[in-house]
């Protein structure tokens, strides 16, 4: 189909999992193929009184990935709470690096029919409880 | 800048918080919330130019743990906390139409 | 003095000297609780069997010659600390039947020190309140006068200690919830430096403000408990890794040469006359003990309550999002769909004050308001801390009232949330700044205790405890307790 005067831009939000042995905020296993909730600890379940403890390997691997795509590595990064309700979100918020992520920008080179294309990494503007 | 909580705002905030405010309570809740905002609005007069927000009272660095699996399988115990569960699953009303 | 009001030191000697066994001591308190607590409502759960079996095990240890400062001392814990297998409600319908699968670190530390836990104390729901009138399990009465509140949120803990229903208790303090009830009930209660006591297993209200601490009959007793409760914990990233000072030894430090700050603007308005008088008397007493007083200013202090009532509700709104009826806790009957499940479980499970604060917090974090409210409050927070840090260049600690009045009447402030919030006017700033602060008995007015507060620099709990201990060597306010109140 042709729509003269219009150009289609499609953004891809890609979630890639870092291959750590344990989870980012708990010592639970990350092995593929476990039965449901077999690798869910008290921390993952968000039981009252639990607290997350950050996995050092996550940061190391994130920096490596960032270096690999030519991204800016932020010396200071922080986690925010992104609040919403969903049954698979035990705490009712996601611990995420919204404001100051550890890796920013960078490029991924993709093979297309027209040859190689470099695609820059866009981050969307910070959103807070805006829905 | 005095933000007052009106009906649309109350509805939006309640929706975000997954709370509802029944009809007979609405006025009382709005009054209570607006009283708190009056208390809080004094903050607007403080000159905070150049001051970094403080999320945490002490400047300590994030401790990092080593990438070890330290947890065991709790799937036998955890679902039993749930008001409704079957096998290893937590049961909720249908999510996707 | 009957044993229920004895100090830890006295009880220690009695236990070690076999004048009394841990079992007899525990039975004594349990029978007092059964008899007298119905008129206070300070306990939500009394652990008769468990306490007696712990006592029996401890008696074996004592017979075998084992000695430790807290071994066999009966205490109570605020029902916000997770206790494995034992109901932990946070004073809420939401968790009315919840039994945690693990102990809080504070609980585990005290158990390792050999205390006997008598039960879980009543509190304002999710630690939100200043009167213990917000509990799903009913209001708590002040043993000094049962028409008065014991304070909150650790009202049950305060009433239990003051009424001789335990030797000491644990509390938590987010905006004053250890210190204010301690003041209303004639106790010595300390909120340590943020991060001094682990928050693992402490049901979260406002994560950057919450801190656990002891509520006891004296600085000496509080020091012993804090020593046991505190310490590094890798399960809590915000817990400090520095080792714990030996508070119980350090309290003997004399006051000679200590500089104590006084903030004139805090004494200007809204303070009851009897408390102002007690303040002056205390000041003179401390001067006689060798302290010198310096007038200081805390420029942004009057914004404390405003900053707190943005930050605390905002953090609470996120911390309480997990209570959704899905994985644990209260779920409404026959939810029609997911939305109904969330709305009704939360509306039915939470009390009014909790809902109010969640709404305020959600508003302050929402798009369009986040910068003006939450971020601005966080900037003001840094300014408030900065004022204290500057003051501590000139003084070793700061003396203030703990509360504007003595214990108010039940029902007096329940219609006016903001009037209730202003009760915390002297206590809130220490939470914002993460500083240690202690409340101690310094007078009486019309049969009700008066408490005063000392705020110190980060990690100077020993300085605060020793100052109060020295004061308690030459005064006897802390020895007074309500009589014939049952």
TL;DR of this structure?
The complex is a heterotrimer of chains A (131), B (97) and C (486). With 131 residues, chain A is α+β, with helices and mostly antiparallel strands.
Layout of strands and helices, then pairs:
The complex is a heterotrimer of chains A (131), B (97) and C (486).
Chain A: H1 42-45, H2 56-68, E1 72-73, E2 80-83, E3 93-96, E4 103-104, E5 107-112, E6 115-120
Antiparallel strand pairs in A: 1-4, 2-3, 5-6
Chain B: H1 7-17, H2 26-41, E1 85-86, E2 89-90
Antiparallel strand pairs in B: 1-2
Chain C: H1 8-16, H2 22-36, E1 43-46, H3 48-63, E2 74-78, H4 105-112, E3 116-121, H5 155-162, E4 168-173, H6 179-185, E5 188-191, E6 211-216, H7 219-229, H8 247-250, E7 259-262, H9 273-288, E8 292-295, H10 304-319, H11 338-349, H12 352-365, H13 371-391, E9 397-401, H14 417-421, H15 428-433, E10 437-445, E11 448-455, H16 461-474
Parallel strand pairs in C: 2-3, 2-4, 7-8, 7-9
Antiparallel strand pairs in C: 1-3, 4-6, 5-6, 5-10, 9-11, 10-11
Major sheet: arrangement of strands of chain C? 1-3-2-4-6-5-10-11-9-7-8
The amount of beta strand of chain A, in percent, is: 15-25%
- Helix proportion of residues of chain A, in percent? 10-25%
Shape of chain C: globular
How many whole angstroms does the radius of gyration of chain A measure?
18 Å
Major β-sheet of chain A, in short? 2 strands, antiparallel
What is the multimeric organization of the chains shown? Answer: heterotrimer
Structure annotation, total helices of chain C: 16
Question: What is the radius of gyration of chain C?
Answer: 21 Å
Distance between the termini of chain A: 33 Å
Give helix and strand order of chain A, one letter per element, not per position.
HHEEEEEE
CATH fold-level assignment of the domain at 3-253 and 436-479 in chain C: Amidase signature (AS) enzymes
Helix content of chain C: 25-40%
Task: Give a count of the beta strands of chain C, DSSP E runs of length 2 or more.
Answer: 11
What CATH architecture label of the domain at 3-253 and 436-479 in chain C applies?
Alpha-Beta Complex
From the helix content, strand content and strand pairing of chain A, which structural class follows? alpha+beta
**How many helices of chain A?**
2
> How much of the polypeptide of chain C forms β-strand, as a percent range?
5-15%
Find the count of extended strands of chain A (DSSP E, 2+ residues). Answer: 6
Structural class of chain C: alpha/beta
Strand order of the largest sheet of chain A: 1-4
